[in-house]
Each structure stands twice: as structure tokens, then as C-alpha cells.
């Protein structure tokens, strides 16, 4: 079964750095806001909101802050209105990059993202220029440490729950499903006693490109700079980097 982009490792590392910089709660608040605006304020009927709340709580975000953000999205409290956007472009070596953002100023954000790309050897493209290289998928993660059985047991549990794909990585198992099946498969796994480390709808590259040396380092610099931008929620790329490049 096919694998998961190694850029995921960078996203994990950057998440820890964001928390140190005080950015993580801001990004999570914006995701909660967007989810509530899009699908309503009830997490039991809005799976995107439920997932966003779970991630925020896992990062120790106070519940009153979460509820205040939901109230703002519902129009019960005045606040800034955020617009969800996607930018697409190319990094060093022609690697594809998709950037998911929530912004209250489209023109400012566009200029800043364009500058990040150009300063690091990339280029911002037109809408749709790289989106076709990715599939929108539901991704569920199971911690190897938290799963009591073997790798074969984990794969069988995933398949029985309705998974499309299963990948064994160093510290986790990654299950891929159709986006609309994410909630059902997750619930099936939980009913089977499988501990879920994370679940979200994301963009998975159809194929990956390998970069080495200077190109690889410049690509890492670009992806990290994008992640650090306050308006950026997620960065997706089809680059395949070695562990040495992620240091």
C-alpha cells in the first residue's frame, strides 16, 4: 500500500515550534472559526469542527477560548471575519506546493505569500496549476506505541473498518480513506478498540519528486517559511525529502 509524504514530518516539527512562538492557538482558532462558519456550530453534526476542537484540546487550548471562537463564527460575538483561500505554486526543483490560508486581508496575504515563494526560489502560480497533482483524502493516524497488536493486526483492523490504504511508518500507522468516509472509518476503528492519534481531511500527492542537496534545503526553507506565516493553516507538497534534509 502506498505511502505518506515526508513533508508530514516537517509539519509535526513546525507544530511544536509554532506552539513556542505562540502561533499555534491562533492557527487553531482560525480553523475552528472556518469550520463553524462552513458547517455550523454543532460539532456532532459538523465533523470538521469536531476534529478542529479535538486538535485544539490536545494542544491544551482552553475550552472557553474554543467556545468564544465558535460564537464569533455563529455571529453571536463581534470579531474579525476570516476568508478561507488556497494558493498554489512551485518550489525549487519544480516541486508542487499548495497553501491553505485563513485571512482577513486577501491583498496583504497574497503579496506576502508571493514574496515568500520568490525569495526562496519558488513561484506562485495560477489557481489549479498544481491542485490536479493531489487527491483530497481522509487520513487517520494510529500511534505504534499506543496500538497493542502487530503491524498485521493494525492493517487488518484498518481494512475491516473500511480503509482504502494502509501505510506503516516508523512511529505510526497511516490509514487513507475517502473524505466522506473519514468519520465512519474512524468510528469503526474506535469501536474495535483502536486508539486514534489523529484524523483529518488533507491533500495527498499522487506522485512525489525527489530533491537533494541545495534544492532540497531551499525547499525545506520555503515550506518552513510558509508554515510560519500567521495566515497559513496547512502546507501540502509532493516533495519527498530524506531525514537528513529535515534536520
From TrEMBL:
Its main location: cytoplasm. Residues 1-15 have a biased composition (Basic residues). One of its GO terms (biological process) is regulation of DNA-templated transcription. It comes from the Bacteria. Keywords: Cytoplasm, DNA-binding, Transcription, Transcription regulation. GO terms for molecular function: DNA binding. Residues 82-239 form the TACO1/YebC-like second and third domain. Coiled coil: none annotated. It is found in: Cytoplasm. Residues 1-20 are annotated as: Disordered. GO terms for cellular component: cytosol. Gene3D superfamilies: 1.10.10.200, 3.30.70.980. Residues 5-76 form the TACO1/YebC-like N-terminal domain. NCBIfam families: PRK00110.1, PRK12378.1, YebC/PmpR family DNA-binding transcriptional regulator. Belongs to the TACO1 family. This is Probable transcriptional regulatory protein COOX1_2414.
Amino acid at each position: 500500500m502506498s505511502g505518506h509524504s515526508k513533508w508530514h514530518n516537517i509539519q509535526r516539527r513546525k507544530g511544536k515550534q509554532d506552539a513556542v512562538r505562540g502561533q499555534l492557538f491562533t492557527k487553531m482558532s482560525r480553523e475552528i472559526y472556518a469550520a463553524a462558519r462552513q458547517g455550523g456550530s454543532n460539532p456532532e453534526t459538523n465533523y470538521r469542527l469536531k476534529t478542529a476542537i479535538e486538535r485544539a484540546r490536545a494542544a491544551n487550548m482552553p475550552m472557553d477560548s474554543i467556545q468564544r471562537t465558535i460564537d464569533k463564527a455563529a455571529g453571536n460575538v463581534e470579531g474579525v471575519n476570516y476568508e478561507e483561500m488556497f494558493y498554489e505554486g512551485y518550489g525549487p526543483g519544480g516541486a508542487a506546493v499548495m497553501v491553505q490560508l485563513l485571512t482577513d486581508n486577501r491583498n496583504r496575504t497574497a503579496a506576502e505569500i508571493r514574496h515568500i515563494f520568490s525569495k526562496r526560489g519558488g513561484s506562485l502560480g495560477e489557481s489549479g496549476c498544481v491542485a490536479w497533482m493531489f487527491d483530497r483524502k481522509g487520513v487517520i493516524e494510529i500511534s505504534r506505541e499506543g496500538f497493542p497488536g502487530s503491524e498485521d493486526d493494525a492493517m487488518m483492523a484498518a481494512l475491516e473498518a473500511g480503509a482504502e490504504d494502509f501505510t506503516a511508518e516508523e512511529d505510526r500507522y497511516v490509514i487513507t480513506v475517502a473524505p466522506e468516509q473519514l468519520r465512519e472509518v474512524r468510528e469503526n476503528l474506535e469501536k474495535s478498540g483502536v486508539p486514534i492519534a489523529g484524523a483529518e481531511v488533507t491533500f495527498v500527492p499522487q506522485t512525489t519528486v525527489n530533491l537533494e542537496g541545495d534544492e532540497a534545503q531551499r525547499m525545506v526553507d520555503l515550506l518552513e517559511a510558509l508554515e510560519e506565516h500567521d495566515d497559513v493553516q496547512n502546507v501540502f507538497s509532493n516533495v519527498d525529502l530524506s531525514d537528513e534534509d529535515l534536520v
